[in-house]
Amino acid sequence: MEETKLTLQNPPIIEAVLDIDCDLPPGLQLSAIESAAKECFDDRYPKFRTQFVQEHQITAPTSGSEPTVSIRQGVRAFQFLQDDERQLVQVSETGFSFNRLAPYTDLDDYLPEIERSWHLYLNLCKPVKVIMIRLRYINRILLPLTAGKVELDDYFKVAPRLADEDNLGFIKFLSQYAAIEINTGNQVNSVLASQPAQGDTLPIIFDNGVLALDPGEPDEWDWILGKIQSLRDLKNRIFKNTVTEQCLNLFQQP
């Protein structure tokens, strides 16, 4: 299949995320590898954050006794950020993540750093199996308002509909679907949601997520790269088949 290209001068992407979920070695505790993790990523990601998870368990009382509450807290993830906090690598209890905030250029620009960081993660955590790869692009599209109104069909091929479009007008909307690509088994999760109007624009969040559930070997980067490229192609096709040419023209302006 020929790859679907999507080149925009001013892309509406506010965050792009690559997740590679893994089966990790039994007994691996993130807290035990904190120092080693810092040594791995500190040179390019000098800022460090820890995410914690806290679980509360309530045991039902027996006759004549009070209920008991137990609390367990553990490390959920380590985040390593660049100085401007626009790019980060995450090591979590489920795997590896690479996040890029706006300004975003092109996935090809970030792939060398993703590969480098992935190999550092391999040496650090020694994952047993890759179980899922996900690409998620969060777009914020500013639609121009005319007299406080906008025709959604001018900008979206896949747009929400009202039951009585002659007598009803949207206050807000949330439209979501999940689907599977027949030929590859890759999955799609697409969300369109409105935000409150800002001046003469209506912000729309287009959350465009795609994922592959095929298991693979962690040290086979070419296989991982092939999955990423397949997901990017699907993501681009979903984007181009969701927005109209008029909408695309919004992103060609400097």
**N-to-C SSE series?**
EHEEEEHEEEEHH
The average pLDDT is: 90
The strands making up the biggest β-sheet line up spatially as: 2-3-4-5-1-6-9-8-7
- SS field, number of helical segments: 4
**Unreliable spans:** none
The portion of residues assigned to helices is 10-25%
Total tally of structural domains:
2
Largest beta-sheet details: 9 strands, antiparallel
3D architecture notes:
With 254 residues, this protein is an alpha+beta fold. The chain has 2 domains: 1-15 and 136-254, no CATH class; 25-126, no CATH class. Helix content is 21%, strand content 37%. It is built from 4 helices and 9 strands; from the N terminus they run E-H-E-E-E-E-H-E-E-E-E-H-H. It has helices at 34-41, 107-125, 221-240, 245-250, and strands at residues 13-23, 47-59, 68-81, 87-92, 95-101, 129-144, 174-180, 187-194, 201-212. A 9-stranded antiparallel sheet has the order 2-3-4-5-1-6-9-8-7, covered by helices on one side. Helix 1 packs antiparallel against helix 2 (107-125). The longest helix is centred in the C-terminal third of the chain and has 20 residues, at 221-240. The relative contact order is 0.19.
